[in-house]
Design a protein that fits this description.
Bound molecules: zinc ion
CATH superfamily of the largest domain: Metal-dependent hydrolases
Low-confidence stretches: none
Number of strands: 17
Strand content: 15-25%
CATH class of the largest domain: Alpha Beta
Distance between the termini: 19 Å
CATH topology of the largest domain: TIM Barrel
Mean pLDDT: 96
Structural class: alpha/beta
CATH architecture of the largest domain: Alpha-Beta Barrel
Helix content: 25-40%
Number of domains: 2
Shape: globular
Radius of gyration: 20 Å
Number of helices: 14
């Protein structure tokens, strides 16, 4: 593969070294060399960053991209004062079931492209709007065309056409067997109004027995038992973590389970943000993701989530950027993305800014100038 020299990097964040200034790097599909812009080096091609900041591509470890329709009217109603309950998932379910594979595919393609333009080079994609054997498995087939990080979320909510008990049995049985060949992960929305801890344990244990790895939507709306279940099962990630007891925080801090915070959901439901500072100070590993979905968080922008985390969740810019890159990789148990150490995939972005702090300092501004994915410019 041809080599590419990126030189005159004003600020290079690799996460495997301290932040470098006046830096250069050589990549193929992987990072081959990192050092000073003034030391001699040669490559097949050269890109002059002209003093801009370079950092790893974002790892968005939580996104619901396979769906049809939108819920703009529900958002407007919520902003006019109606509370968020999660019930709108069934609205999207009906639209998703009615959509062809081609429509679902083009929706995912549009959102993945939107993400790339904003610096995301790895994305996890969940099912969860089909809620039938056929519609969940075709959702995952479509998702697997775009990423290897595919997640079976048949246990998103109970669909209106199946009784509750038999639905849990279906998800943990026939639906799981149809979906497992297309999925890496199994997930459950463990929450009041969705699935309780025992139901979540049943579904996750069944998924693990089929070779899938667990992750959980936990403690978004209430201080339930989702986080403790995540730690009990050594889940890669407990996602949301908005309402945590002291023992939840301690459990996360003494485990490998990442606390994935999704501030787009609190923003879009006008809810209190999770306390990132409390988790970080306790020693938990924190990641940030978009939760991109048509109901509670219709943003595909990791820079927006970084800005929220810094402004409203008391993360420092450096902590938020780590959480959106290396933290996301931890939440997917990946060591080949989310950093720019030697041997990592050459997934990175060049900003229209001299420092990565600008991602939070200049919210809403399209600062991602160039994006490299596995050594190829995709923007
Ligand atoms: Zn979610």
């Amino acid at each position: 593969m041809r080599s590419l020299l990126i030189t005159n990097i004003g600020e290079l964040t690799t996460h495997s070294d301290s932040v470098l200034t006046d830096a250069a790097m050589i990549v193929t599909d992987r990072v081959e060399w990192v050092g000073s812009a003034s030391s001699p080096h040669a490559a097949d091609e050269v890109f002059d960053a002209q003093g801009a900041a370079v950092l790893p591509g974002f790892v968005d470890s939580h996104a619901h991209l396979v769906f049809a329709g939108d819920r703009a009217a529900e958002f407007a109603a919520r902003m006019a004062g109606e509370p968020y309950t999660g019930g709108g998932i069934r609205t999207t379910m009906a639209a998703t079931r009615a959509a062809s594979d081609a429509v679902l595919r083009s929706n995912v393609e549009r959102l993945v492209d939107e993400m790339r333009r904003q610096g995301t080079t790895t994305v996890e994609i969940k099912s969860g709007y089909g809620l039938s054997v056929l519609d969940e498995s075709r959702s995952l087939r479509v998702a697997s065309e775009f990423t290897t990080e595919t997640t079976f979320l048949g246990a998103h909510v109970v669909p209106p056409d199946v009784p509750r008990d038999s639905y849990v049995e279906l998800v943990a049985g026939e639906m799981l067997r149809a979906c497992a060949p297309h999925a890496k992960w199994v997930d459950v929305f463990c929450e009041r109004g969705a699935f309780d801890v025992d139901e979540a344990r049943t579904v996750l244990a069944a998924g693990m027995a089929e070779g899938l790895l667990p992750r959980i939507h936990a403690n978004q709306l209430t201080e339930g038992g989702g986080v403790r279940l995540a730690v009990e099962l050594d889940a890669a990630s407990a996602d949301h973590c908005t309402h945590l007891s002291d023992s939840d925080v301690d459990a996360l801090a003494s485990s490998q389970t990442v606390a994935t915070l999704l501030p787009g959901a609190e923003f879009s439901t006008r809810s209190p943000y999770p306390d990132a500072r409390r988790l970080l100070d306790a020693g938990a590993t924190v990641s940030l993701a978009t939760d991109c979905n048509p109901g509670s968080s219709y943003t595909s922008s990791m820079p927006f989530c970084i800005a929220l985390a810094v402004r409203d969740m008391r993360m420092t810019p450096a902590e938020a950027i780590w959480a959106a890159t290396a933290g996301g990789a931890r939440a997917l148990r990946r060591s080949d993305v989310g950093h720019l150490g030697i041997g990592a995939y050459a997934d990175l972005m060049v900003l229209d800014a001299p420092s990565s702090v600008h991602l939070a300092y200049r919210p809403g501004v399209p600062l991602v100038r160039k994006v490299l994915h596995k050594g190829v410019w995709v923007r």
